[in-house]
Design brief:
mainly beta; 4-stranded antiparallel beta sheet; binds zinc ion; 2 helices; 176 residues; 5-stranded antiparallel beta sheet
């Protein structure tokens, strides 16, 4: 399977927000979500679970009557997730919360991914609380975007559109 690599616009490096880091690996450039928080300031990154060598983002979720945790790859655009439960429906909309204090992470935003249009989004705050990462709450949807205060909208849109579909990023990492 071929890796779908999305170039990170060079100009973005000048406005890289705190909490997102830029890394070069095997000659490729990636953005990694380095610190994200719940509305009460709890870090959502955990050192105990790593995906692609980076601490994963841990959120609690409810899907109907089910409740559990999801560990999300911190590589921007990757859709690798680990579940500590088995979600009953593959396209269910989750209700996410902070695994530490239980505060809701849900906000309304319109998902721009083709064929989705979902409004339930998981919000994670970058340091300072003004810049945000928004992820579509529908399982399996690749919709995600950055909401940044001090970056041109077109640039943020370009970065938000970065996606590594399916298992491509795993092929690149050689399955680690
Ligand atoms: Zn919290
Ligand atoms: Zn969506």
């Amino acid at each position: 399977m071929q890796l779908v690599h999305n170039e990170i616009p060079r100009e973005f490096l000048n406005v890289l927000p705190e909490g997102i880091k830029f890394i070069a690996l095997h000659g490729r450039n990636f953005l990694v979500v380095e610190s994200v928080f719940c509305p009460q300031g709890h870090s959502l990154r955990v050192d105990t679970v790593k995906i692609h060598g980076e601490p994963a983002v841990h959120i609690g979720v409810r899907i109907g009557a089910q409740e559990g945790g999801i560990f999300i790859d911190s590589f921007w655009g990757s859709h690798n997730k680990l579940y500590d439960f088995i979600p009953g429906e593959s396209e269910a909309v989750v209700e996410a919360f902070c695994p530490v204090c239980g505060a809701s992470l849900m906000v309304n935003d319109v998902c721009k991914a083709e064929g989705c249009g979902g409004e339930a989004h998981i919000q994670m705050l970058l340091p300072g609380g003004k810049n945000r990462v928004l992820v579509c709450g529908r399982l399996g949807c690749p919709g995600h975007r950055l909401a940044l205060q001090a970056a041109p909208g077109s640039l943020v849109e370009e970065v938000s559109a970065i996606n590594y579909f399916g298992t491509h990023i795993d092929d690149f990492f050689g399955g680690i």
